[in-house]
């Protein structure tokens, strides 16, 4: 790892992190897939699609309210913090699939949320959008227009917010180094971001205790937890920058 960082640091100016549920796992937020993943006990088609929501909004809201409570209490871990600290040494952009806001809580300044944010709610019909970072009492929150409010997250079959996605693709295609952390890379279109980076000859590093379908495409695979690997990676990068 040291060799790769030392040899390339001079050329690395723009760093993009692509993060997934694994980076927040050590902050107490469960991942989706894998042995303790949310989809082990919950059917995504009954909870994370617009049809599921209209079929049973109460069930979907119960599930999201429980997860909102968990997110409100969660704190960023050493992985989130290490990424934020790197801003002192390079231009850093975080493209996250996570909906927990922990990168922003850790003080990362450029975070693009590809799948929305669980603390925001929006109307299922009109353009109403609000940030409600606290518990709300109603079982089924209603918009002023009379329609049901829903979490401002991206469900299966829904498009990502197009302005965010466009910017994300731009950053991925321009970076010198992409670090892919804590994502299984099974969900599209987020899983195409490393491909864009590679097409631009960026260095690709993956941090994940498990192999992913893209591991063989990476320049470096660190099979470790993000709280351990990210501070080490960032500290090596800082040392190399200070020497150069
Ligand atoms: C650690 C660690 C530690 C653990 N340190 N690492 C058929 C029908 C309909 C759609 C499709 C279809 N086939 C394909 C599609 C497209 C679909 C898709 O990709 N589906 C696949 C599952 C097959 N995608 C979409 O629908 C997207 N929209 C879209 O494509 O629009 C165009 C379109 C429109 C209409 C039709 C078709 C296409 C939208 C995707 C939205 C995803 N939404 C969710 C829920 C968000 C809200 C919520 O949270 O409730 O987003 S699903 C879930 O998966 C969540 C995540 O952001 C996303 C990715 O998961 P992630 O982050 O990778 O987590 P895991 O659990 O998979 O992996 C964790 C990793 O961490 C593991 O590898 C661990 O090893 C690792 N790890 N501890 C480091 N400590």
Biggest sheet statistics: 6 strands, parallel
Number of domains: 2
Rg is 18 Å
Strand order of the largest sheet: 3-2-1-7-8-9
- Enter the CATH topology name of the largest domain: Rossmann fold
CATH top level of the largest domain is: Alpha Beta
Could you give the distance between the termini? 17 Å
Element-level helix/strand string: HEHHHHHHEHEEEEHEHEEH
In percent, how much strand structure appears in the residues? 15-25%
Shape: elongated
The small molecules bound here are:
ligand BJW
Percentage of helical residues? 25-40%
The fourth-level CATH homologous superfamily of the largest domain is TPP-binding domain
Could you give the count of β-strands?
Answer: 9
CATH architecture of the largest domain: 3-Layer(aba) Sandwich
Helix/strand class: alpha/beta
Average residue pLDDT: 94
Model regions low in confidence, pLDDT < 50 over at least 5 residues? none
Number of helices: 11
Compact summary:
With 244 residues, the chain is an alpha/beta fold. Helix content is 38%, strand content 18%. The protein has two domains: 1-28 and 76-115 and 160-244, TPP-binding domain (Rossmann fold), CATH 3.40.50.1220; 30-73 and 117-153, SIR2/SIRT2 'Small Domain', CATH 3.30.1600.10.
Record keyword descriptors for this entry:
244 residues; alpha/beta; Rossmann fold; SIR2/SIRT2 'Small Domain'; 2 domains; six-stranded parallel sheet; 11 helices; 9 strands; 38% helix; 18% strand; binds ligand BJW
